[in-house]
Structure formats: C-alpha cells, structure tokens
Amino acid sequence: MTPRKSARFRLTLPLSVTYLDGVTVNISGTTVNSSASGTLFKAAAILRVGARIEYVITLPNAGSEVALLQCKGTVVRVTPVAEGVYEIATTVDRWHFERAGHEARANRQTPITSRTFLAVV
pTM for this structure? Predict the structure, then answer.
C-alpha cells in the first residue's frame, strides 16, 4: 500500500459544494476526513469523477465568528454508502481561508503541508 501524501484528520464538519464544472450548485454534505491534499465527504448527490469542484467547509470556532475554508479541486472517487448517500473524494488544489467577512492569514496553492492545514483547522 502506498503511503498517503499527507496526514488525514477525522473531522465531521458541514460542507457545501458551490460550483461543479463551472456551474453554480448548492449541494450540502458533511466531511468524513480531510488533509492538506484532499477531502472525503458524504452527500446525497452523485458527482462525476473528474469533475472540477469548489466547496466550502465551515470550521468550528470558539467565538461567534464563522470560519470558512474554501477549496477548489477535482472529484477523484464516488462510492455509494447507503441508499441515496455517497462518499465523494476530492483533491485540494487551491484553498482560501477567511473569517467573519475578512481574509485571514492563509491563501495558498498546493502543495500545502499538514502543519499548515492544522493551523487553519
């Protein structure tokens, strides 16, 4: 078995797909795990392997501000896990982190490290 590029973190967080192959969509899901190089999430939608995707993960925050991790990537795997529910694996090619209406400390392109990812999450 080939080792993973970066450490995976089991995180159950709200996720929203906003663009799929350049078309605005609104697909809700929940993350299963995330890393600096990809995200696995569950949703009640079938996405095409190879589709370009943009999605937003809502991050936990101790204060009242909302923290968002906006990602762009490619769908690499879709697996049915229950009737009408799919696990969707995506790459993270680009990401942008913002908090409560202003840009935060990170705006990067891949490769990002697990350490950088942990600093954001």
Answer: 0.78
